[in-house]
Design brief:
The chain is 30% helix and 31% strand. With 340 residues, it is an alpha+beta fold. Strand 19 and strand 20 form a beta hairpin. The longest helix has 16 residues. It is globular. It comes from Stenotrophomonas mori.
Length: 340
């Protein structure tokens, strides 16, 4: 199986898993799969996600290109001899994905005839759509999907999502987030309501071209190319920034269960970890909270993050249940606890 420009990493991973599900791979195909897995760290994460979706959600049937029905015991038994190799390949991938759950809390319809997809805290979900497009939902996120004959309408209600859009010039793919519309024909882009700097909507384009516009026409629209970001809100309009390819992939590291920080403050980082874990990072001293960090960290390990930045910034870590405190060695919270 060869990767093409028209297939995303997730699409290729899903195709490999679907082929494995249908029948054992031949020797040549197994070598080709292993070479693809080893070619890029992102391939392991995509492969792990595809396996988890196939096993744990009914909607994984769409990844299997029409493989019929639930698998019965004889089929499971037939697959047993080849699971050892798969488990070895997934062992590293599972660590890289930071044990983020890919269980879907599901799709349901409401009276408006739309479909709603959502994830709980710590979950990531890839949703295949009827036209060949796909949505990858970040932790604690929700989208509304409603297709008509001439338009594909998506509303990002909460959180962040990556959209891989199937080409169809006659049927635009429109994502609405608050007061911003993002329109694409065939492309890959992310939209976030958790933008850390301006509090508005962030649009990050990985492939193709998208148009970003204010729903009320109060702000001049903008066209966005690959490796560019738009920050949109009513106070400053639509601000466009170039994004290096490496930075772009780090911005989307949440797909692999990771969080990337590049000059963000500790307070901002603490808030990001709360989206993925019940453990809270508390910083009582605003001076400590304003310290800036750079790095890639497991989204599901706030304690590990706190310990890492404590070493690099000369801070103290204290854990009490699901609360992790960061302070200076002589900081107010640390001094108060030392006197008790």
């Amino acid at each position: 199986m060869r990767a093409t420009d028209d297939l995303s990493i997730d699409d290729i991973a899903a195709a490999w898993v679907a082929r494995e599900d249908r029948a054992p791979l031949g020797a040549a195909d197994a070598v080709a799969r292993d070479a693809w897995l080893q070619a890029d760290v992102r391939h392991f994460g995509a492969y792990a996600r595809a396996h988890a979706v196939l096993v744990r959600t009914d909607r994984a049937r769409a990844l299997s290109s029409g493989v019929p029905g639930p698998r019965d015991a004889p089929v499971a038994a037939a697959r047993a001899p080849r699971l050892g190799r798969t488990r070895r390949l997934l062992r590293w991938a599972a660590g890289a994905a930071a044990a983020i759950s890919l269980l879907a809390i599901g799709v349901h319809r409401q009276d408006d005839d739309a479909e709603y997809y959502a994830t709980r805290r710590g979950e990531i979900l890839r949703v295949p759509l009827q036209d060949g497009s796909a949505i990858t939902l970040d932790s604690d996120s929700q989208v509304r999907v409603r297709y008509t004959d001439d338009r594909r309408n998506i509303t990002l209600l909460q959180g962040e999502a990556l959209f891989d859009v199937a080409k169809n010039p006659g049927r635009p793919f429109v994502v609405r987030a608050q007061e911003t519309d993002v329109t694409a024909v065939g492309t890959s882009f992310a939209v976030s309501l958790t933008e850390r700097r301006s509090g508005g909507v962030e649009v990050l384009v990985r492939e193709g071209v998208v148009d970003v516009a204010d729903t009320q026409g109060a702000v001049a629209p903008a066209r966005l190319l690959a490796n560019y970001r738009a920050l949109a809100n009513r106070s400053h309009g639509i601000r466009i920034e170039a994004v290096a390819n490496e930075d772009l992939e780090q911005q989307l590291a949440w797909r692999e269960g990771m969080l990337s920080f590049n000059g963000d403050t500790l307070s901002v980082a603490a808030a990001q970890f709360l989206r993925y874990s019940d453990t809270r990072i508390v910083i009582d001293d605003p001076v400590v909270g304003s310290r800036r960090i750079v790095g890639l960290y497991s989204a599901s390990d706030p304690l590990g993050f706190a310990r890492s930045v404590a070493v690099s910034l000369g801070l103290v870590v204290e854990q009490q249940g699901k609360v992790v405190r960061l302070s200076t060695p002589q900081g107010p919270s640390h001094a108060a606890r030392s006197m008790q």
